[in-house]
Amino acid sequence: MKSIKIFAPATVANLSCGFDILGCCLDTVGDEMVITLTSEPGVKITRIDGANLPMETHKNVAGVAVQALLAAYGNDVGVEIEIYKKIKAGSGIGSSAASSAGAVWAVNHLLDQPFTVHELIKFAMEGEKLASGNAHADNVAPALSGGFTLVRSYNPLDVIKLHTPKDLVMTVIHPQIEVKTSDSRSVIRHNVKLRQAIQQWGNVGGLVAGLFTEDYALIGRSLEDVIIEPMRSILIPEFKAVKDAAIAKGALGCGISGSGPSIFALNKGMETANAVAEAICKVYDKTGLDFDIHVSKINDHGIKIINE
C-alpha cells in the first residue's frame, strides 16, 4: 500500500469583484488528509475527525471527486481517505474545496501524476457540485495551483494562475454561524444592470492588473463588489462595521469570503494585517457571537505533502 499525508489549504473565493472566477490560497489554515492506495478497487472514506460529514462515498465531496478521477484513469484502483477537518463546513473559506482538491491531488501524486493540475480542477469541481449544486472552480483552482487564480471560462474550462505580490497578507474573521453556499446563492438576483456589470468588469481587470504590477493602491481600488455583496452582506452580522474597521486600519479592501459568513480583508504587510485583525475582533466582541480569526500570507504553492 502507498500512502500520503497532505495539507489541504483554505481559500478565499470571489475576492469581491470576481464572483465564481477569482480566488486565492491561504497558508496557515487548512485540513489534513491521509490518502492510501489499496489492492481492493473502489473509494472508501475510512475516517473523519473534526466534522460531522457523510462517510458514504457518493455523499462525500472527497469521495465523489476521487471517483471522477478514477473514472478518467480507467484502471481498478482502491483508495482509502482519512479527513481531519480544521476548516469548518459552511465557513466560507473553502471547506468542501479543501477536501475535494486535497483528495484528487494526493491520489494523482500516488499514481505518479497521470493528470495535469488543470485536469485535477475538473475532478475537484465534482465535489463542489455535490456540496453546493454548482460546479464552481474559484476555490479548488487556487487550492490546487496556489496563489491567485482566474477562471477565464467554464465552458471550456480555462484557469489562469495570476501573480502573487509578496507583501499581501489576508485577515479573515469567521463568525460561528453557518451560511450554506446553496442558501447564499438563493438570495442572488440573476439579472444585473449594465452599468453595474461595466463597473464590475472594470474592477476585475483592475485587480488582475494590480496583482501583476504589484500596484497595491490599484488592488485596493479594485476590491469592490457592486453586484453580489449588497445582497449577501445582509446574511452576515455586523458586516459593514467590520468592513469599516478594516479599512480604517489600513486594509487594501474588505469583502465577503466566498459565500460567507467569513469576511476577508486583504492587506499590505503583516503589521497592517494584525492591526486589522485586532480591530475587527473588537467589533465582534460586542456581538456575543463566537468567532475565529486568521491571519495568513498567500500560499503560492497550494496543497503540500506533510509526510509519505
Fold and architecture overview:
The protein has helices at residues 61-73, 95-110, 117-132, 140-145, 181-186, 194-213, 216-222, 229-232, 239-248, 270-285; strands at residues 2-13, 22-38, 42-49, 78-84, 148-154, 157-161, 168-175, 253-256, 263-268, 291-297, 304-307. The chain is α+β, with helices and mostly antiparallel strands. Strands 1, 2, 3, 4, 5, 6 and 11 form a 7-stranded mixed beta sheet that branches. Strands 8-9-7-10 form a 4-stranded antiparallel beta sheet, with helices on both faces. A hairpin with a 2-residue loop joins strand 5 (148-154) and strand 6 (157-161). The longest helix is centred in the middle third of the chain and has 20 residues, at 194-213. The protein is globular. The termini are close together. The mean pLDDT is 95.
